[in-house]
Amino acid sequence: MLTTKIPYLHCRNGIYYYRNQSVWKSLRTRCKKEAFRKVSHILFGSSSAVNDTALTEPPAKPKQITSTTNLIKAYLAENGNRWCAREYTRIESSLAFLPKCVITRQIAIDLKASILVIKTATTFNRYLKYFNALYRWILANNALITENPFEGLKVIEKKKNISEGRRAYTPEQLRVLLKFADSYGKGDRRYWLIMIGRFTGARMNEICQLKPQDITKDVIHIRGDVLKTSNAKRSIPTHPKLIELGLLEWVSQCVGNRLFHQWTVVKGSYSHAASRWFSRNNPSKSNVTGEKADVDFHSLRHTVATELKYAGVASQYTAQILGHSNGNITYDRYGKTVTFERLKESIEIIGITTA
Predict the structure, then answer these.
(1) Widest distance between CA atoms in the chain
(2) pTM
(3) Could you say which architecture CATH assigns to the domain 2-56?
(4) Distances from the Cα of 335 to the Cαs of 312, 320, 326, 340, in angstroms?
């Protein structure tokens, strides 16, 4: 061991040590100048004790904010099991619009402007709902991000009357649609997709989940695995016209777990393939390239609602038939103001002018 001329500084096997009485502390350096600096820090610095980290390690770098991409991955991993496959896909595709970098307020504003160039205000607001949900999770789980850059960016849309959202079919359009269905024949699933939609007002995704045991001569049970709301699960009387057309015979001949199993499930949506088929072959579609039809399959639902309204059917019966929020009753147990007999009478109103 070599003893230097500097008090408290000693060299052993080429490594410098600080020594004060019986205390030995390695300075972890072979450089005498660096060792002297460290001893000076110990003797004359603000700290009275030897601090290994302060002497031997550089100051810690400030933590970097995790990229948006990694935050999204963590968010989906933690919350993904709460959503059905269809909702998960919708959320994931919406969050794909977010840039990979850390998002500032200005970036959020610029992103809003760029999305509104290619999407409608309604679509942007739907994306924004998912952006805000993501950042609520980030604020609760990441201490480095302290504000939501998307707060307050919602586009204020002009309020529309409910009837302005989608049009109901006109009598002429209904005749064209039913003729279109007839072209497939009563043994074809496409015929029955249209007919069930026409005489129940059910959503396409609800119809595509029907199983053979869901349809009887008295009632049709809407109870699929993927329903829009809890009220969508319902039982409604079978329309006499469907019985007359041969629905029960077709159901008895169907094979497979679902009546419409030929249309495969895509990303949690049972109606994805059926919707594409109808959109491409919609008989009400304009001949002008790129121009959308003013009615689609969902318009059948509005048609049923309109027929019931004009016939003076009470709202609770219409809600039960269509699966709306104030129709939370079932075939087995009806509320005091709803009876199966009255519900059956309401169903039979549908299609009087076109059946």
Answers:
(1) 113
(2) 0.62
(3) 2-Layer Sandwich (3.30)
(4) 20, 11, 11, 10
CB 227 within 8 A of CB 214: no
Residues 6+ apart with CB under 8 A from 188: none
Residue 136 is predicted with a pLDDT of 95
Q: What residue type is 52 in one-letter code?
A: D
Asked if residue 58 has pLDDT above 90, the reply is: no
Which one of 3.40.30.10, 1.10.443.10, 1.10.3470.10, 2.40.30.200 gives the CATH number of domain 171-349?
Answer: 1.10.443.10
What's the confidence (pLDDT) of residue 56?
47
Q: For 24-54, what is each residue's pLDDT tens digit?
A: 788 888 888 788 788 777 776 644 444 444 4
Phi, psi angles (nearest 5°) of residue 335: -70, 170
**Three-state SS annotation for 171-209:** HHHHHHHHHHHHCCCCCCHHHHHHHHHHHHCCCHHHHCC
Q: How far apart are the first and last CA of the chain?
A: 109
